[in-house]
Design goal:
alpha/beta, Arc Repressor Mutant, subunit A, D-Maltodextrin-Binding Protein, domain 2, 3 domains, eleven-stranded mixed β-sheet, two-stranded antiparallel ribbon, 10 helices, elongated
Length: 287
C-alpha cells in the first residue's frame, strides 16, 4: 500500500493534462506501454479507475480529477521541502566564493576545483557577477572569498594578486593594424570597437581610457565573454579590446596597446571573517 512516488505523480499529471497516452509518453521519454503500465498500477493501488479510455483519448473520472488536484498539492509541498533542505545545506556550506565577471577565465580552474573538493565547507558555485556586486557581497559577509578585478579600496580586507593579463587589441588579418606590434590608444579613435559589456570591469576602463585621450570609443558590440569577441573580429565587425585571453591564429591576432595597464585579478577576503583562516589558505593555494 502507498507505493506511489513523485515519478508516478508526474506520469499521471502529464497524461491528465495531455489526454493522450502517446503524446504524454513522448514528453516523459517513456514508451506508451511503460506509461500505460504505470497508470494501471496507480489505479490498482487507488482501487478505482482514474481514466476512461476512449477513441478521443484518456478522459479523467471524478476520482481522477480529485487525484490530480491533490497530487499537485503534494508535489508543491515536496518541492518546497527540497528547496528548504537545499537552503539549509547551503548555509551549512558557509564558505562561498564570488567571481567578478571574466575572472573564471583567468584563474587556474583545476587548482580551485581541487581545493573546493578537499574542503567540503566550501560551496562550489561558479557564477560571475559585476565586480562591484561581488565586492559588496564580500563586505556584507555574504561570501567568504572573492576573485576581483583590481584591488578594492577597503580597510578590512586582504587583497593579493592572483593573475595579471596584458590588455590587447584583437584584429582580423586584413586590418591595417595586422602587421603592427603596438598601437596607441588614440589610433583606435575612428575604429568600430567590440568590447566586453557593462558587467565587466574592462568596459568601464576602456571608456575611461578613451575619454582621457579626448574621444569617445565607437563601440559597435558589447559581449559577455571572450569567444564572442574573437568571432566578431574574425568576421570583420570591428576590432576587439580584451585581456589576452586567446592565442593568435591565421585569422585573428593580438596587437599590444602602448602604455596599457594590465588586467589584474586579486584574491580578496575579510580579515574579520569567521572563515579568514580558510580564506588565507585558499588564497595561498591558488596564487
Amino acid at each position: 500500500m502507498y507505493l506511489m512516488n513523485t515519478r508516478n505523480f508526474k506520469c499521471f499529471q502529464t497524461v491528465y493534462e495531455e489526454r493522450n497516452l502517446q503524446l504524454a509518453a513522448s514528453k516523459l521519454f517513456l514508451s506508451p506501454q511503460g506509461l500505460s503500465k504505470i497508470i494501471k498500477s496507480m489505479e490498482e493501488e487507488c482501487g478505482t479507475p482514474l481514466f476512461v479510455r476512449t477513441k478521443e483519448g484518456f478522459i479523467p473520472t471524478e476520482c481522477g480529477k480529485l487525484f490530480y488536484e491533490k497530487s499537485k498539492c503534494i508535489m508543491r509541498d515536496i518541492n518546497d521541502l527540497f528547496t528548504s533542505i537545499e537552503a539549509v545545506s547551503d548555509k551549512e556550506m558557509r564558505f562561498k566564493v564570488g567571481f567578478a565577471a571574466g575572472t573564471i577565465r583567468a584563474i587556474d580552474i583545476p587548482k580551485v576545483k581541487k581545493f573546493m573538493e578537499t574542503n567540503t565547507e566550501i560551496l562550489a558555485s561558479w557564477y560571475e557577477q559585476e565586480n562591484k556586486a561581488v565586492l559588496k557581497q564580500l563586505l556584507n559577509d555574504e561570501i567568504s572569498f572573492a576573485f576581483l578585478v583590481g584591488a578594492p579600496n577597503a580597510g578590512n580586507v586582504v587583497a593579493e594578486p592572483v593573475k595579471s593579463v596584458d590588455m590587447v587589441i584583437y584584429v582580423h588579418k586584413d586590418h591595417r593594424f595586422w602587421d603592427k606590434k603596438e598601437v596607441d590608444i588614440g589610433d583606435i579613435k575612428e575604429e568600430p570597437i567590440i568590447s566586453m559589456n557593462e558587467k565587466h570591469h574592462i568596459y568601464h576602463d576602456v571608456i575611461g581610457a578613451c575619454r582621457m585621450n579626448g574621444f569617445m570609443p565607437n563601440i559597435v558590440a558589447k559581449v559577455g565573454e571572450g569567444e564572442s569577441i574573437y568571432q566578431l573580429v574574425k568576421n570583420r565587425i570591428g576590432i576587439g579590446i580584451s585581456p589576452r585571453f586567446f592565442p593568435d591564429t591565421k585569422d585573428v591576432r593580438a596587437v599590444s596597446i602602448k602604455d596599457a595597464y594590465t588586467w589584474d585579478v586579486y584574491g580578496v577576503y575579510r580579515t574579520d571573517s569567521a572563515d579568514a583562516a580558510l580564506a588565507k589558505r585558499f588564497l595561498e593555494y591558488v596564487k
